[in-house]
Amino acid sequence: MARTPRAEAGAPPSADDRAPAGAWTAPEKSTPAMRQYLEMKARHPDALLFFQMGDFYEMFYEDARQAAKALELALTSRQSDADGPIPMCGVPIHAYAPYCARLLEAGYKVAICDQIGNPAEAKGVVRREVVRVLTPGTAVADPRFLDSKESQYLAGLLPGKEGWGLAWADITTGEFHALEIGGSRPESLLAGELERLRPREVLLPQGAAMPAPAQARLREMSARVEARSAQAFAPGTAGERLAGQFPEEPSMGEIARAHPAAAGAAAALLEFVRENQPGGLPHLRPVAFGRLADVMVLDAATQRNLDLVRSAADGGKKGTLFHLLDETLTGMGGRLLKKWVLAPLVSAAAVAHRADAVEEFVENASLRLGLRESLRSVQDLERILGRVGLQTANARDLCGLGASLAALPSLGARLEETRAAALRQLAEGWDPLEELAGELRRAIVDDPPAGIRDGGMFRDGVDPELDRLRLAGREGKSWLTAYEARERERTGLPVKVGFNRVFGFYLELTKRFSDQAPPEYTRKQTLVSAERYITPELKKIEEDVLGAEEKAKELEFLLFGRLRARVGADSKRLLAAADRVARLDALAALAEVAARRGYVRPAVDEGEAIEIAEGRHPVIEADAASPSFVPNDLEIGGERQVLILTGPNMSGKSTYLRQCALIVLMAQMGSFVPARSARIGRVDRVFTRVGAHDRLLDGQSTFMVEMVETAAILREATPRSFVVLDEVGRGTSTYDGVSIAWAVVEFLHNSERCRPRTLFATHYHELAELAKVLPRVRNLTVEVREWGEEVVFLRKVIEGSCDRSYGIHVGRLAGLPPEVIARARELLAGFEAAPEARGVPRRPPRAGKGAREQLSLFAGPPSPAEEALRELFPDRMTPREALDALYSLKSLLKSGRIEDPDGLG
After folding, report:
1. Which of 193, 250, 556, 872 has its CA 20 to 30 A from that of 109?
2. pLDDT at residue 888 in the model
3. DSSP 8-state secondary structure symbol assigned to residue 695
4. Which residues are annotated as a binding site?
5. Quick one: where's region Disordered (predicted)?
């Protein structure tokens, strides 16, 4: 049998891994069920097919191999085909949801094939159909398997004339955005946006080549890539298609035409979602076309290097800035806060607008605590509305919605007390939605069932017909109890009334009394220890009881559909309320962290300087396992444009660099910061080159990664940027490394276009000499105390430079054998005794415009004076011969064939 090509080990299949439908053909000896399986698989060759067989979903062939590996299932086999035993694995139908969620998380597409007919009534093979197709970007998973603080994005990409169109949507919340990415390096910006969004699935026109940086990001996050027809992305019809989805937005078509690449990507995304969610998308919000210039763009390297939302160590949340700041109490508030972390503001006025609200919450603790107490009862309104729009919401969702809406009046009342403009904007037009909240509370019971077809969702009094049917059902059960008592009295036998789904109600007698059964008892079932009977009267009661119960369930299902539609009709008002609650939650969370940890409000202005007094690393300081944190200052900008930080290994240089970058980002989020005081001259972008790691899957070594990231910084930084560079050049030889590091500092200092505020940490102590020749370079070092062979790292950053790395001391702390430490000290002493033999420059090259003299870092051939000096033997010379030799050496120096180091010529 022809099979789909195997995907890369451990990776989900991409669009290129599909087999054509005709490739799935059944061997001659296949069973009818396997023929049916192969027919379904041919229709969905790019999906893992969950094929119902009884109480299990089974997978076969390559699907089984991939699913078994991804889900850690046992791979078994069934009867052979022409290629040998057929691999298979399966999961129970009643527990398939978590398995399916894991496959979607890993980037797989899943097709669910259910048994449609009743196996007991089927003639031949039971009929099966694919009832739904789940993709990572369009599946609406059980809320239990969704991270409430994570968005579930589907993205579309379209190459444009000068860059890329990017659209993304989260159908679980209705969020829908698009923008165009241009500039001199759109590939880098695109990779950064993909890292920020982390889409689970990406749509791309067939034949389009995705940039290598974007491919690397998607591969790292196991995103599924789906190739779609070019027609789906056609910009010429995109405006019309988007306007058709959002008729309430009359300007949608015009806006789309102004952003053709973004609109084309959005239209393709919309078409794909419609295919996979045929029930409609009433909750999907109109496309919000944005601009990268509205927020601070953080490239993929900076997001990773600073551990903003994912730890570089394990990919988790712990140890990240978001984990520290996330004191939100609602899912939508948490998702909004994460967006703020990944997209700080670039306007000083916008920063102040948000920070004013945070400050009011910090200063007014009773207001903050009261609001947060009310927020505790608010569930994830956005995702509930998403399920309502997709018609998957159940009674528990509507019950939670009602309880959430009940908190809106108190939240609105508390906002009336506020003064900050951002909070006043939230208070103005606050919609308490009291009518809908009342309807939901009156309709749905406090603890409804998960299913919507089994009844038990509505309170008594909601519908007269439902009340009548329920009464009939209750009375019918009373009749059964009375009937059992009458039969016992009439027959004198210990008869019992029972029920099962196959035979309905029955009368049961044990074997001991079965031969005494009255003639009107009709035997229905024989058991080992009992006989079961029915009577005409019992069947009549059964019809009344079961009929009433079934009718009540059907009516509840109908009533629930109406109530769900009623909620959907108010989706605009509900989404507006959700937006306001999310903002309120995120602002209060930032204030809660600030109050709890003693943060201060920074001043963000249009100046050049960044001044931080007693700054602290927010994440390390919060770690209970860390010792007391040593605060440090930063003063950078203007005449202190480039700060070169030297110091021992393990002294805290990297921590200091990350700390300063995080404080800048927090300030421009509108957050308070961990410092005694802070003034931030507005930053347009933060760049970091920190840490060392390989990208083996991309064929990039540690040094190549370092150079790629450094090159991007040198291309894209501006005078408004803040650049953090740590140990540039350490991934190669000493001579190459110090040369590159030196040249990078010169470029950052001298470039007319660039000149960003730069923190440059290095173990190349020779770079400290740059402060003598470059006017805007200053030296910093980390203070150290030595007592004999003991070294204490004080973690304090001070003015000055360091000429030792104390690497041997660090090796001793790490547990290197004493003999290794002793030998290392011996070698170090030898190297330090002959610095010129190592080619280390004793002075910096002259820096300036035009041609510059550069000292070689490598030892050159010996000069004539050196050769002459080697031929002299002082112990054998008379005083006169020694004097003549000295004049001869002086003559060689004067001839210019060797530089006079002392300038005595």
Report:
1. 193
2. 82
3. B
4. 647-654
5. 1-27, 838-863
395-406 pLDDT, tens digit per residue, is 999 999 999 999
CA gap 453, 572 in Å, rounded: 28
CA dihedral 239, 245, 246, 247 (to 10 degrees): 90
The CATH homologous superfamily for domain 603-805 is: P-loop containing nucleotide triphosphate hydrolases (3.40.50.300)
Task: Answer whether CATH 3.40.50.2000 is correct for domain 151-294.
Answer: no
pLDDT on residue 549: 83
Cα distances (Å, whole numbers) of residue 510 to 86, 490, 515: 50, 17, 10
Model pLDDT, residue 121 = 66
Q: What are 76-87's pLDDT values in tens digits?
A: 987 766 667 889
Structure tokens, 441? 């509370």
CA 106/CA 116 separation, integer angstroms:
29
| Residue 646 token pair | 């030297």
Hunting for tokens 């070169």 — which residue is that? 644
Binding residues for ATP: 647-654
Residue with tokens 């779609």: 228
Question: Half-sphere exposure of residue 273, counting CA atoms within 13 Å on the CB side?
Answer: 32
First to last CA, the chain: 90
Structure tokens, 732: 């190669």
- Topology of domain 329-433+570-596 in CATH is MutS, DNA mismatch repair protein; Chain A, domain 3 (1.10.1420)
Q: Six-digit token pair at 175? A: 């969020």
The structure's pTM equals 0.82
Q: 502-516, pLDDT tens digit by residue?
A: 778 899 999 889 889
Encode burial over 178-191: b for 16+ CB neighbours within 10 A, e otherwise. Answer: bbbbeeebbbbbbb
**Backbone phi, then psi, for 303, in 5-degree steps?**
-60, -40
